[in-house]
Amino acid sequence: MGTIYKRGKTWYVDYRTGGKRFRRRVGPSKKVAELTLKNIEVRLSQNDFTVVPNDKSLEMFLEEFMEYTRTNNSPATYRRYTAVTDHFKRFLHERAPTVRRLCQLGPHLVEQYKTWRRDSTVTPNGRKAKEGRPKGKRPKANTVNMEIGTLRTIFGRAVQWGYLARDPTEGVESLRVTDAKPPRFLSKEECRQLLANGGPDLHPIFFTFLHTGMRKSELLNLQWKDVDFRRRKILIRNKPFWTPKTREREIPMGEKVYDLFSGLDRGRPEGFVFPGRDGGRSKRKPRRALMRVTTRCGFPDVTKIHSLRHTFASHLVMSGVDLPTVQKLLGHADIKTTMIYAHLLPDHLASAVDKLEL
What we know:
The protein is mainly α. It has three domains: 1-51; 53-180, Tyrosine recombinase, N-terminal domain (DNA polymerase, domain 1, Orthogonal Bundle), CATH 1.10.150.130; 188-353, hpI Integrase, Chain A, CATH 1.10.443. Helix content is 45%, strand content 9%. A three-stranded antiparallel β-sheet has the order 1-2-3, with helices on one face. The chain is elongated and about 75 Å long. The termini are far apart. The mean pLDDT is 85.
């Protein structure tokens, strides 16, 4: 069905399908060329192959994709893609060193990656544990599932760009999640203690987190031109120097947030609502400040700024606000993300069906 040949120092694969002849440049390794041809022949025999003349090396594609995501996504998303691709490269180096081209990828390889990632250990900083040093923890099922979803996005882009005929993550199922814990949120009393002990600098920041559900990056990049006092709306929108994690949205300002913002010093429209010492974007580390305050208040298990966002959402749900509304306020792209709060729905909602008369 096909053959390999060498031209200069480079090996090529030569095969026919659909009455047409195709040649693919593989590289300097004869063994890789043989494996590439074998992979093509297997897929052709299973009628599971669509010709992709633009096939390129995996390394070149990942470099191209990372440049794309650096331009089109937020820094946080770029860091996540970097971490996942680093894991995938390490897996290939350890378990599949001959896989170097996109055409060699397939669901079976992704399944192997899923197993490898589930059983791997990392140190707390996310790096692989070095030999002779204490091993870290195995990643949670949700973490592995997130990484598979990220690979699906990455290789979906390869399909869109014409480098792959089919997404190699297609048909790969998520791990069953048995180790997930409900997000930690603060009780009303804990909220009062946090605000009372925050001091004049931290109180407005903690208050805004608790009453708007904003992400950390959204709050630190908030400018006065994003605060619409007339309509009482906070605008989360694109800026030349920053892009929201999901999409642009509006957050209503309640009476308390409106009063807080009205009392803050305002400068130019381009000025930041919570500026740094030099008046520019704040470089403060709100998580460190939060940990100091929560330790002093007696609930040191609250260690993440994201817990304040969880608190906002959790108390909305417990007050009877429906999940689609909470999704819109938080800016979740998928209702599945908001469903982590479903267990907090009050009992009176479950009993509401008893009032239905047909």
